[in-house]
# Entry
Amino acid sequence: MQKLSAATTGFAIAALSGVATLGQAQAQKAPAVQKAQVAVTQKGYQPASLMLRAGVPARITFTRKTDATCATEVVFPDDKVTKPLPLNKPVVVAFTPKKKGTYAFTCGMKMFKGKVVVR
# Structure
């Protein structure tokens, strides 16, 4: 019968008890870029609320799916960013959220509203 070394036994016990191994810990690292898709429809921004992590670069892609609303642009008033939203063409808003908090985005007329929640 073969004897297991203390290191092998410890690894086996850790694996069986649910302790994350080095490979699992690396797989659970934060992504290099956070990505979100937002459709602009007759109902507004879908989804209207996005969750992001502070300090991790983000790319939000807005795609306007209808010509029947005033949502022809997206405005991030806190950052003074305005991007036109051509019909059926993806538009990327890229930034790195620095502080935790809730940040609004709207259409140019402020009739359609959404938010980014940074944790």
